[in-house]
Amino acid sequence: MREKVEEVKPAAVMVVVQVAFAGVNILYKLAANDGMSLKVIVAYRFLFATAFMVPLAVALEEEAAQIPVVDPGACVPLWPVWVNC
């Protein structure tokens, strides 16, 4: 049973994404027909995409976002000179 679910999962995700795209396109069309400026629609699109993607990126890349430890005796490149070399 579990193998079949894993086998169907990519297709199910693709269907969900296509349904979401269709819904968004319908909402865009309704907003444009109601008189909303296309520039405003695009601005809202970017705002909502940013509001969705930033928390997702932070959650998925939490470990990669840690500040690396730098050896205090290492050469630090400060263009055009090298400090502590």
Give structural attributes.
85 residues; mainly alpha; two-stranded antiparallel ribbon; single chain
Characterization of this structure:
This protein has 85 residues and is mainly alpha-helical. 65% of the residues lie in helices and 7% in strands. The protein has a domain at 2-60. It is flat and about 60 Å long. The N and C termini lie far apart (62 Å). One of its GO terms (molecular function) is transmembrane transporter activity. Keywords: Membrane, Transmembrane, Transmembrane helix. It comes from Linum tenue. This is WAT1-related protein.
Indicate the low-confidence ranges by residue numbers.
none
Number of strands: 2
Gyration radius, rounded = 23 Å
Task: Write the H/E string, N to C.
Answer: HHEE
Helix content: 55-70%
Estimate what percentage of residues fall within beta strands: 5-15%
- End-to-end C-alpha gap: 62 Å
Spatial ordering of strands, largest sheet: 1-2
Largest sheet: 2 strands, antiparallel
The average pLDDT value, as a whole number, equals 83
Q: Give the oligomeric state of the chains in this entry, treating copies of one chain as homo and distinct chains as hetero.
A: single chain
Shape: flat
Count of separate DSSP helical elements: 2
Quickly give the structural class.
mainly alpha
